[in-house]
Request: fold
Amino acid sequence: VPALSLTSGTTATIPSIASALPFSATIADGTVVSTSVKGISLTGSAIGTSSLTVSDGTLTSNAVSVRVSSAKPTSVVLTTDAASYPAGGAGTLTVTLSDAAGTLPSGTYAVYTTAPASSFALTVGSVALAALAPTVTVNDSGVATIAFNAPLSDGTTTISGTTSATTIVETPASFAVSSGASDAANAATDAANEATDAANAATDAANAAADSADAATQAAEDAGAKADAALAAVTALSQQVTSVLAKVAALSALLVRVVKKVKA
Reply:
């Protein structure tokens, strides 16, 4: 069975290993019945990424990218699996550790001096949060998860802690909590506001109608005043006509007398 060797594309990051891969095979009548390759430990020499391949001298495997981490967290990000929960609702908090190159490999890291805590008391999960100080243990994805139950208080809840170094930046988690009671109260408030709006609209309409009535009354009064003025003018004219007629009658009578005297 040929020896297998591992070749690193960046030996400064991960050294190559020649003829060191443990490999075994069972051959019967010239046929390979089974093979077995055991894992080996790789030691990173420097921070960075290398492309690894395995070869038996004739065949070469596909390349696998492997990153050597600094193992020093510079970022801790807290997130929840939902943006909002009902009061006391179940949720999951995810803690992700990373450095400038990406998430950290599995392990235990010093992150907090003061463990993350909730701005409103969680009904379940506070003890698990307290266990995050001073160290956080993450899986191969650089992640730790904690189950919790949301507070019973309505409002925005924030989960955050104090990191152990200024070089570690935390992103807190934030989510909203609402209860059925608050939903009912909000609905009642909305209904009351709508009723107030309707009452204000009715008042505005009544005020507009009153203004229209006042305008109509004023117009009627103005028309009445004009009618009175017209009647007074007609009455004065009638009096003048009567006076003129009387004078005409008197003049007519005088003319009759004059005519009679002339004939005599």
The chain has a mean pLDDT of 86. Residues 83 and 175 are 5 Å apart (CA to CA).
